[in-house]
Structures are given as C-alpha cells and as structure tokens.
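Please go through the protein record below and explain what the tokens say about the fold. Record follows.
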Amino acid sequence: MGQESSGQQQMWSLVGELPRQLEASWQQGADGVQTRDVSAVKVVGMGGSAVAAELVGAVLDPARMSVSVLRDYALRHRPAPGTLLVFSSYSGNTEETLAAWEDAARYTPDCPRVIISSGGQLAKLAQAASVPCISLPPDLPPRASLGHGVGALCALLEAVGDPGLAEQVPATLQTLDSGNRRWGLDGQPAADSSLEQLAAALDGRLPVLYTGCALTHAVARRWRGQINENAKLLVTTAELPELDHNEVVGWGQDTLVRQQARVVALRDCGEVGRIALRFSATRQALGLSGDSWFERCTGPGPALARMMGLVQEGDVLSCLLARRAGVDPVPVKVIDGIKQQLARESS
C-alpha cells in the first residue's frame, strides 16, 4: 500500500467518530416530538438513512415496537393506526424521500410525521407544515453520518413509545469506544490486525456476505454499502436459510467465480442453533477452504451493542480496502452523475 491520501485520512477519521456521533444525537433527544403511544414506525429513506432504520429495527422486540423501511417514491398504502411516519434524509434533498413526503401529505395528512435531516428541502417542507424535525449536523458525507442517524432514531423511538433501547445505549458506546482502540481509530497502533488480514484476502476479489439472522442481515447491508462507496468494490449478499435453497447451486462448476469470490460469514452470538449448523453445512457443501471462507462474529452484550460493533468492523474494513486499492473513499462520482442526469431530465 502507498501513502495514505487526504480522502482516506478523512474517512478513517470519520469512522472513528461513530461513538461520539451516536452519543451526541442520543443525548440531543427528540423533545419537540409530541406523538406518544406509537406501536409501529415506518421510515422513508434511501442509502445510509434507510440503513440506520434497518439496523435499529433489527434489534427491537416487535411485541413492543416495530420499524419498517420504505425505499420508494410513494407510500403504496395507508399506514395502520398507531404508526408514525419518519422521513429521513441526511441532505434533505433525496428525490425519493421528497416525493414520498408529498404523497403522504396528499393522501394521509392525518398520520403523524417526523423528519430526521441536516436541512435541505425536506426541512423547509417540514417547517411549513409544522412537522417536528430532528436536526443532524451538516456537511458530512451521508454515509459517514450513521452514528447520528442511529442515535437520533433511538432517541425518537424512546420518546414516542417503549422500544427498550435506553438500557442498551451505554453498552453500545462502550463497545464502540473499545473498537476504536482495537482497530487503531484512536490514533494509536491497532491492537488487532485481523481486519487488515481480511482486507488483504478480499483485495481485488468479490466479497460475498452470508448472514443468518435479522441483526446480521441489517449489518450486511451496511457492509455492502460501505465497501461499494468507500472501496469502489462490488459486493454480493445472501441470507440463511434462504440461500441454501438456491444460491448454493449458483456456485456450480464456474471456476472464475471460485477464483474471485471470497465468502465472509457475518455471525451473531445470539443466532439459533440450526443456523449455526447451516453455516457449517453450507461451507462444506461449497468446498470452501480457509482462504475462501472467513467469519466475523459479534461480541458480547445487548443486541444494539453487538450489532454496532460489527457495523464498526465493516466501516473499518471498507477503509482498509480503499487504501489497498489506492482509491479515494470520499467522492462517489457515479452517484453524483446519476443525480445530475435526473435533474436535467426534470428541468
């Protein structure tokens, strides 16, 4: 690897801010939100905004509160009674989220709404409609604001219902602070080189993420997005037990796939026994050796802490892959180009 670029340094520093982001937005709370006794939350968002909601939703007890995510231009159907609509867009200018806002204002004006954003057009629309806004700090790459998004959503859910998150936040912050030291995000040499070794194994390969429970399914979507955007690398994901009913056959006898693909199994210490057996059986069926199959497992603690610790590992890995590839993780020119083309078509 060559000398680290300014963009690589910037993203590495932003990854290290994850615990402080989560802490700040959690402590900021959601005092302006008056809605109470919410049993279901539908979050409308794209990219990192949607992933933050998926992550939080994956650790909730659905008997206490459920979170669903909509990545689309319209609501499709009227939310059930007791549902809170949350429109989340870091920039406040996400095309799909703005369209869904207009759709909700037109067809479900009586459904309670909240926005989570750093500003933009969405914040202006919310202010005009007297809808509460949970503000995020501006001027970050949206994917580097995940801590703020997760912290704000946790605070919102605690304000409107009883999701059981308050008792998990302190342990989560401890896990992330420990991770900062473990992975060298605190400016000191890393105490653990296992992610460096994994980055070396994945360099120039096709990462295949396999997961086995709701918690790791959500984490895999974060890993995929971070590796896509930071390392400019294609990633594929699949979920057990479903992948054992189709994807395993897709490996077939294609030697190119076997040469390029590297499986990373994202495991949770709370996964059920049959899933653990399936991981073992799947690896055996595919005939993958130790240089083609890798595993990362959550540490101890409550679900939110386990999940965010594994999220942090994916963020670190994406930066290490960017370094190895010699790419700047900050710009996402393809995404910007698509947005510009759509803007021209709309004008």
About this structure: Strands lie at 40-44, 66-70, 83-89, 113-117, 133-135, 206-211, 236-239, 261-267, 293-297.
